[in-house]
Amino acid sequence: MTAVDRQRARPLPATSRYDATPPLRRGALLVTASLAALSGAVTTAAAVPALWRLWQLYAMLFGVFAAVEIVAVAAVLGWPTRKTAHFAALTAAVALALWVVSRPLGLLARFDPWQPADTVVGFTDYVVAALQVLALFGLLVVARRRAHPRPSTLRRVSAWIVLFPVLLLVLATGTAGAVAAGDGVTGTNASMLLDSTSSTVEYCRPAGIPLAMDVYQPQPSATPAPVVLYLHDGGLFLGNRKPAGPGALLDGPRFTAVRDALTARGVAVASIDYRLAPAAPWPAPLTDAKCAVRFLAANATALHLDLARIAAWGTGTGGTLAALLGTAPGFDAGQYAGVPSTVHAVAAVAAPADFTDFTGLDAVTRASILLALGRAPATLREASPLTYAGPGAPPFLLAGGGRKSAEYANRLRAAGDPVTTGDGGPAEVTDFLVTALR
Asked: Are 433 and 225 in contact (CB under 8 A)?
């Protein structure tokens, strides 16, 4: 009896005193992986309202997946066990699979559901995918650890030191991605009706994606107004048409100054969104700009505009697109077939004129060109205004510098085209456009 009593009195194994899924330590890896999953889910959720206006089915699909992942992250941070870590890893894997199916494979019909998230930054969905990859692998590593690991203080501190920069990067990219994806929530929705009640209209719908145009009218007059099409800067992968907000950080103040000066002198201004790289590869930005010109020409009567006096103005790579509108033939894909996309003046400020020669470029500029255009020599030549310098161009203002813009100006002059150069200040741009559109 004594031996039996002693045997019964033995302490139970540790695993029997705890639940089947004992808790894990909230270490640096668990926190970093969880916040990566949360950042990806919040960025996806931020684009849902804009997606809802396009197709509710996709919006519900993306919204449900984002909500489930947010719940999974809350569970793994609140009750860090192997089960919750596996559940959170599964939601990250499903979110990553959704991105692969919809973006690289393009298997979702009707349109690309990630485009609403890419209206300010053209690679927002790629950021979401990278965050999900980090979350997936981090959570799987955490789930494979022993229960109740007790590393030394030095090991814990070292882990936080090593992963702290990654954690900061996750938080920064997640915040930026959510702000960029959610930009479409604010502002006026694009209308398909051309009336005086809406200044924001849908000008084209390439691949099922509605593109917005803000039309700023001058004071009413008896004669139709000339119009200037504005193309924003951003290296072809950043920015949007809005004069304020995250998409206007590059040249919002410069745009508003010229816009107000033009409308005060009787010239209408149309500012557009165009599809951004790498979500929409070249020549999507140029075909969108051409479609915007055709829209203005086709609807000149409804908008009280003079279709014979349409100019293009842009800064940075927006100026490059404006220059291509003035000289590059073709690229007239999409709506309003048969309507000419001719512009009668071009103002390109600080606009690169050539992308084929990388000599002397810094690493950041070179990377931005490759991100926007890729490496194909044919594409780089096609996107370079210098390729099309020849006779028959409209009056040009090439101001404020820009890679090989001086050579571009010289070639246009040699072909007999009127070219003005300067510093690209608001007054200079305004005076040039008003004079050219008289």
From this structure: no
Please, where in the chain does CATH 3.40.50.1820 lie? 200-436
8 Å CB contact between 199 and 188: yes
Nearest alpha carbon to residue 288 among 432, 119, 430, 402: 119
Look up tokens 């304020």; give the residue. Answer: 244
Q: How sure is the predictor about 48, in pLDDT bands with cuts at 50, 70 and 90?
A: very high
For tokens 């990566």, what's the residue?
Answer: 36
For residue 411, which of 383, 390, 394, 393 has the smallest C-alpha distance? 390
Amino acid, single-letter form, for residue 129: A
DSSP helix/strand/coil, 392: coil
CATH superfamily placement of domain 200-436: Alpha/Beta hydrolase fold, catalytic domain (3.40.50.1820)
User: Which residues partner with 349 through β-bridges?
Assistant: 315, 399
Q: Which amino acid is at 24?
A: L
Half-sphere exposure of 256 (CA within 13 A, CB side): 9
DSSP 13: P
The two structure tokens encoding residue 183: 């930009």
β-pairing, 211-216 vs 268-272, is antiparallel
**Tokens (6 digits) for 288:** 């969108």
Note whether 423 and 399 are within 8 A (CB). yes
Indicate the SS3 state at residue 99: helix
Query: Residues 178, 283, 349, CA angle at the centre, nearest 5°?
Result: 80
Residue 59 has pLDDT above 60, yes or no: yes
- H/E element holding 269? strand 268-272
| The token pair that represents 312 in the structure block | 């293009």
Amino acid at 354: D
How is residue 23 written in tokens?
């808790």
Dist CA 275 CA 207 (whole Å): 11
Phi and psi at residue 34, in whole multiples of 5°? -65, -40
Q: What would the two tokens of residue 372 be?
A: 């926007």
Residue 14's pLDDT is 44
Angle between helices 124-143 and 82-102 (to 10 degrees): 150
Q: What DSSP designation does 207 have?
A: G
Question: Residue 406 and residue 197: Cα distance in Å, rounded?
Answer: 44
Quote the radius of gyration of the chain (alpha carbons, Å). Answer: 27
pLDDT at 186: 62
Q: Is the pLDDT of residue 18 over 50?
A: no
Whether the Cβ atoms of residue 65 and residue 95 lie closer than 8 Å to each other:
yes
Q: Which two tokens stand for residue 33?
A: 């992986």
Q: Name the pLDDT band for 16 (thresholds 50, 70, 90).
A: very low
pLDDT, tens digit (0-9, with 9 covering 90-100), for 91-109: 999 999 999 999 889 888 7
> How many CB atoms are closer than 10 A to CB 377?
10
